[in-house]
Amino acid sequence: MTVDFTVTRNTNPTSPERRAEILADPGFGKHFTDHMVRIDWHGDHVDSGEWSNAQVLPYGPLSLDPAASVFHYGQEIFEGIKAYRQADGSITTFRPEENAARLNKSAQRLVLPELPEDLFTEAIRQLVSIDADWVPSGDGESLYLRPFMISTEAFLGIRPAHEVSFFVIASPAGNYFGTPKPVDIWLSTNYARAGVGGTGEAKCGGNYAASLAAQLEGEANGCKQVIFKDPNRDDAIEELGGMNVFFVFADGKIVTPELTGTILRGITRKSIIKLAQERGHTVEERRFTLEEWRQGVASGEITEIFACGTAAVITPVGKLKAADFEISSPSGEDGGAVTMALREELVGMQTGKVEDRFGWNVKLV
Ligand SMILES: *Cc1c(COP(=O)(O)O)cnc(C)c1O
């Protein structure tokens, strides 16, 4: 499908000096570029409505009716994807068709309309083109893109909204893990982020809202991240609040919890499985319990643990802390050789330093 985007340039963009200042220390999700994308949808039913009014417009506040259903019933989904500056100056993104497909799976679950996959990628291309100067070129740096979809219809009756908008905003991201240190994680036993038949597999804001109490509990116990287990399957480990988790064994085997419907289908997870297999690791996607974690670290069979997601790429995991026990960190302060090698290969592929053997990079500009 071809959709023409109306482009309205920001008449008061960030000055080059200010932008340079921001890019020197972007942090994460704090600063936003000069433009955004918006596409509206209208329809009586998710299968029969129409996307229209595709625009690139100045970044700025939205005007929504206070009765807009997103504020009341939470019909909201999002994605996270990055744009990378290549050595030749061009800008690429990574596996956008995967994000587009996942957005549509999330849309199905939340009864929001599906966005044609090529329109998703085109929306990203439009924003990255106009804000290309915001794509940093430093090691491990990128422009983080946040596509999201909300229900905007002013109606308090309970049914899927008839008016919806899709947006893309962008925020420069620094190199978090230049020297990644293992993070200690908190095992949440009081809270679950997802349940069987719920929205665990959908990338929706509601899941994050549900994870915040556990996150605070973890912080109060000195942990930056929280891991959840499946409350219905005893001690099966699921994932962190916003990252999937992997366990590396001394014999080279790598285990990650299987996708049960309550775990988010991470694209980093999927990419790492492929890269690890290529490197000769046996990768098992299966039920992985707390008991196996405890025993594996105690016996020395588990040598490394890491978490992964688009924002942070790969983060080594240290200790597991819970209310009444602790499992010590299997790796040293450097996070472990397998973890670091996978991270280097993945980031290298995304930024053009390692050959893109699977055609995962898509040129945007
Ligand atoms: C986005 C997300 C991930 C990671 O997915 P990627 O596609 O690798 O970025 C993992 N878990 C949750 C809950 C998420 O929302």
TrEMBL record:
* Co-factor requirement: pyridoxal 5'-phosphate
Q: Which Pfam families match?
A: Aminotran_4
Q: Does the keyword RNA-binding apply?
A: no
Known EC number: 2.6.1.42
According to the UniProt entry, its GO molecular function terms are: transaminase activity
- Keyword Amino-acid biosynthesis found: yes
Q: Sorted alphabetically, which keywords does the UniProt record give?
A: Amino-acid biosynthesis, Aminotransferase, Branched-chain amino acid biosynthesis, Pyridoxal phosphate, Transferase
State the Gene3D superfamilies in the record: 3.30.470.10, D-amino Acid Aminotransferase, subunit A, domain 2
- What chemistry does it catalyse, as a reaction equation? L-leucine + 2-oxoglutarate = 4-methyl-2-oxopentanoate + L-glutamate; L-isoleucine + 2-oxoglutarate = (S)-3-methyl-2-oxopentanoate + L-glutamate; L-valine + 2-oxoglutarate = 3-methyl-2-oxobutanoate + L-glutamate
Pathway where it operates: Amino-acid biosynthesis; L-isoleucine biosynthesis; L-isoleucine from 2-oxobutanoate: step 4/4; Amino-acid biosynthesis; L-valine biosynthesis; L-valine from pyruvate: step 4/4; Amino-acid biosynthesis; L-leucine biosynthesis; L-leucine from 3-methyl-2-oxobutanoate: step 4/4
- Transmembrane ranges? none
Q: Where does the source fall among the domains of life?
A: Bacteria
Instruction: Please give the family membership noted in the entry.
Output: Belongs to the class-IV pyridoxal-phosphate-dependent aminotransferase family.
| UniProt protein name | Branched-chain-amino-acid aminotransferase
What's the source species for this entry? Rothia endophytica
